[in-house]
Write a structure and sequence with these properties.
The protein is of the alpha/beta class. Helices cover about 30% and strands about 25% of the residues. Strands 5-4-6-7-3-8-9-10-11 form a nine-stranded mixed β-sheet, covered by helices on one side. Strands 1-2 form a two-stranded antiparallel ribbon.
Length: about 250
């Protein structure tokens, strides 16, 4: 083991880390959580991120780097999911062939060794840059803290072996209210153990009132060098697309 001086450290110019979503939101080989309560458009947001990365188009006005995306979802029947995806695809006509791949599998369990191996075989053959998993709790044989911890280790292994980034759609626990005001606390309260929060490199929490289509995207980020400001967005239902608003 050897240490280097401050001067040597500062003289070193490391290569830039690729960012699939700029502003340090999604770097190569990192883990991002799209999080929120019911009807917060989590899956639509994850799919929209996938479209922007697969096409290289900006996301919420933020630059992206074009990459190959694989989306595995275990919650929505394939027919309605296909209809939703087809509507969203009209916003991104320039997605390269094979740049955005999909799989619907209600029986997939990430903590089952045979299923994890099947996914690993796919990654080995197709080498996507970004893997979207939707949602986490549906991919557990039994939802408990040990299952979350085991699948964290599995995903870390896949990230290291295949140089992928992971976008995970995740659900909240029972919302917590401020004991003084009685209002919901706008903070990350994930299902699973407390280690889940610290495991992600980026958390994007979607807040809003399900009585309207306005949402606020709030960020907690490990790698950002500046404070990530919240983004206000509104769902354009004609395009099934979240658009930034003033």
């Amino acid at each position: 083991m050897s240490f280097e001086s401050l001067q040597d450290m500062l003289a070193w110019n490391p290569p830039p880390v690729p960012q699939y979503v700029g502003n340090y939101i999604l770097l190569k080989k990192t883990k991002m959580c799209v999080f929120g309560g019911p009807k917060m458009f989590k899956s639509i947001m994850a799919a929209q991120l996938g479209f922007c990365i697969a096409s290289g188009a900006p996301w919420m006005g933020i630059p992206t780097m074009q990459g190959k995306v694989a989306y595995l979802q275990c919650e929505i029947p394939k027919g309605p999911f296909r209809d939703r995806t087809a509507k969203m695809a009209k916003n991104m006509p320039r997605v390269p062939n094979g740049a955005y791949m999909f799989n619907t599998d209600f029986s997939f369990k990430l903590d089952r060794s045979s299923d994890a191996q099947t996914l690993e075989n796919y990654l080995d053959r197709n080498r996507p840059d970004v893997l979207i998993l939707d949602p986490w709790y549906k991919m557990l044989s039994v939802e408990d803290n040990q299952a979350y911890s085991r699948t964290q280790d599995i995903m870390d292994y896949m990230i290291d072996k295949y140089d992928i980034s992971i976008i995970m759609v995740h659900h909240d626990t029972v919302p917590m209210n401020d004991p003084q005001t009685g209002q919901p606390i706008n903070r990350f309260h994930p299902r699973g153990p407390r280690t889940v929060e610290g495991w992600f490199d980026t958390i994007m929490q979607i807040d809003g009132n399900i009585q309207n289509d306005d949402r606020v995207l709030r960020f907690e980020m490990r790698h950002a060098i500046t404070l990530a400001r919240p983004i206000k967005a509104t769902m354009d239902r004609a395009k099934l697309w979240l658009e930034p608003r003033p």
